[in-house]
Design brief:
Strand order of the largest sheet: 2-1-3-10-4
Oligomer: single chain
Helix content: 25-40%
Radius of gyration: 19 Å
Length: about 325
């Protein structure tokens, strides 16, 4: 490889810049080449509409992918949960590094935990998935909460709590970790309470499919367990024909016996945003050795969920 700088395409948000900076450092170490960040504005960054309205899937990704295809950048970093489930042939998912904490968290006033929130508490989130599960949890535990749709960056969202407009907001632990603000979390939500978005906490490093040299170098950063887990989760999402703004949660985790990883458990949930109806199922199988096996695990669970009525809970299905 030459020592010419590699150009990394990234969104401009503080979080995107932080996670791209961390990847740039790792890529610099494995390639021995300098990496420069190329900032790209996406439709999802400039639109003021709610994510569910602008389509959710791909709104943060399209501009980065176009820059890759035009050769303006050599590779791009995405939050995996923002990636559409269909992979364009011209682009390769060269690496999925070790996943951060996939859980959702609450930042609440007065350091409150979810179970401490007062009656009528207003909780902000832009995610139908979080709304569905929080409302279902509240119903089953006799809590009186109101979920309020919000969007904006981390500063904006936490600002609603500081200004007293909301009692709490729900965010992803991974994002707060990457920008050094995890100490503001007042409660980590168990995945038994709220299943994360498929791929949450994982990053995707993408480059042109015909750049074999770069693919081989980036592959050094790939974590096979993370890749198997998120492949199963995204396969579930794809088989439900749901976009990333649909109220679908999924998490694949590895079940270990001492040091030996024995099995993978995949859990999925879909529900109405008011929490009145949830379809929640899980399946356990051998740790997938191939992409095909991980994909099959997700597809099987989706089939079971559809048989239990999941399709009718997702509003409009994405195609």
């Amino acid at each position: 490889m030459t020592d010419k700088a590699l150009r990394l395409g990234t969104r401009r948000s503080k979080l995107a810049m932080a996670q791209s900076g961390q990847v740039a450092e790792a890529v610099g170490q494995v390639t021995g080449r300098p990496v420069e960040l190329v900032e790209i504005t996406t439709y999802g960054d400039v639109s003021r509409e709610h994510l569910a309205q602008i389509g959710g899937t791909g709104v943060f990704v399209a501009a980065l992918r176009e820059a890759l295809l035009r050769g303006e950048v050599d590779f791009a970093v995405h939050s995996l949960k923002d990636l559409p489930t269909a992979q364009p042939e011209e682009l390769a998912l060269a690496a999925i590094p070790v996943r951060e904490d996939p859980r959702d968290v609450i930042v609440a006033r007065d350091a409150l935990k979810l179970t401490d929130l007062p009656r009528g508490a207003r909780i902000g989130t832009g995610s139908p998935r979080r709304m569905a599960q929080l409302n279902a949890y509240a119903r089953s535990h006799g809590m009186d909460i109101e979920t309020v749709p919000i969007r904006g960056n981390v500063d904006t969202r936490i600002g609603y709590v500081h200004k007293g407009e909301l009692d709490a907001v729900v965010l992803a632990a991974a994002g707060l970790n990457r920008i050094g603000r995890i100490d503001e979390v007042t409660d980590f939500l168990s995945v038994d309470t709220v299943l994360p978005a498929p791929g949450q906490g994982a990053l995707a490093i993408e480059c042109a499919a015909d750049n074999a040299e770069l693919i081989a170098a980036l592959a050094e950063l790939d974590d096979p367990f993370t890749r198997a887990a998120v492949t199963a989760e995204r396969s579930l999402l794809a088989a439900l024909e749901a976009g990333c703004s649909a109220p679908v949660g999924a998490l694949a985790d590895l079940l270990a016996d001492g040091q030996i990883v024995k099995e993978m458990r995949l859990r999925g949930v879909v529900g109405t945003t008011d929490g009145a109806t949830l379809v929640q199922l899980s399946t356990t199988g051998p740790v997938p050795e191939t992409q095909e096996a991980a994909t099959a695990l997700g597809r099987e669970l989706a089939t079971e969920m559809l048989a239990q009525g999941a399709a009718g809970l997702m509003g409009e299905r994405a195609h």
